[in-house]
Write a structure and sequence with these properties.
282 residues; mainly beta; OB fold (Dihydrolipoamide Acetyltransferase, E2P); seven-stranded antiparallel beta sheet; four-stranded antiparallel beta sheet
């Protein structure tokens, strides 16, 4: 549920957050957290990675993207907040006593059971099985690109891919990704059923600059607003153009509209249709 604050201050007027009643307020499971080292944008006092720095101190939760405990029933102990990702995570208790964190699908609650298997099982939200056993038109997430590799795509809040079909030989499944790209994935790859949790996150209004600094995002300055020594677009008096035939990055490479994907990249043959670029509103 999206909570909108009362306009008690100028920054509060535009601020909103996501509130979920099912989120556990307690501490994370201690054996599944590690200290996350800060990777600020400075090295020996000099900025080497722009637009990053600060952020809140936080623990990293070890997420099980592989979900390779097959044919062992697991029960959701709690749904928790993870500061390192946009979706919620679920703490799973398996029958053998092991506990793991997974990406929580939308609609799953504490006490629900789910199963991972390499065979055909019930098509229930949260269950995980190979793509070849999933019905056409179903939403999936945490999809593998290579068998046994672990989920690599469709893992952010509210995202889901759609299984559209299979090739004639059945070796590949045709998947429509959230970006509208349609590509082939080996049908033996695993995928979890359902949509990723926290779909309301896309409607959050951060409200004030301080919330972005807590996330580790520092200000982004236009190149044309800098001095010539700082950026190729810099210099000039007043509101002046960049003075170049085409835009450049800070390091002098062409920017905006330049194709960066290698033509001979091996995954080209698996992509059936490219994503549709979003048109900018005038």
């Amino acid at each position: 549920m999206l909570k909108i604050y009362k306009p008690t201050t100028p920054s509060r007027r535009k601020t909103s957050v996501v509130r979920a009643e099912e989120i556990n307020k307690g501490r994370p499971y201690r054996k599944l957290i590690i200290i996350k080292k800060r990777k600020a944008g400075r090295s020996k006092g000099c900025i080497v990675v722009r637009h990053q720095g600060g952020q809140e101190k936080r623990f990293y939760r070890k997420i099980d993207f592989r979900q390779d405990k097959f044919d062992i029933s697991g029960q959701v102990k709690s749904i928790e907040y993870d500061p390192n990702r946009s979706c919620w995570i679920a703490l799973i208790n398996y029958l053998d006593g092991e506990k793991r964190y997974i990406i929580a699908p939308r609609g799953i609650k504490a006490g629900d059971n789910f199963l991972n298997s390499k065979n055909k099982i019930e098509a229930k939200v949260g269950n995980r099985m190979p793509l070849k056993y999933i019905n056409l038109g179903m939403a999936v997430h945490n999809v593998e690109l290579n068998p046994g590799q672990g989920g690599k795509i469709v893992r952010s809040a509210g995202s889901s891919a759609v299984l559209m079909g299979f090739t004639e030989d059945g070796k590949f499944a045709q998947i429509k990704l959230p970006s509208s790209e349609i590509r082939l994935i080996p049908s033996s790859c695993l995928a979890s059923l359902g949509q990723v949790s926290n779909p309301e996150r896309r409607f959050i209004r951060w409200g004030r600059a301080g919330r972005m600094r807590h996330r580790g995002i520092r200000p982004t300055v236009r190149g044309k607003a800098m001095n010539p020594v700082s950026h190729p677009h810099g210099g000039g008096e007043g509101v002046s153009p960049i003075g170049l035939k085409h835009p450049k990055t800070l390091w002098g490479k062409p920017a905006r509209g330049v194709k960066t994907r290698k033509r001979k990249k091996w995954t080209n043959k698996l992509i059936i249709k490219r994503r549709m670029k979003k048109l900018k509103k005038k």
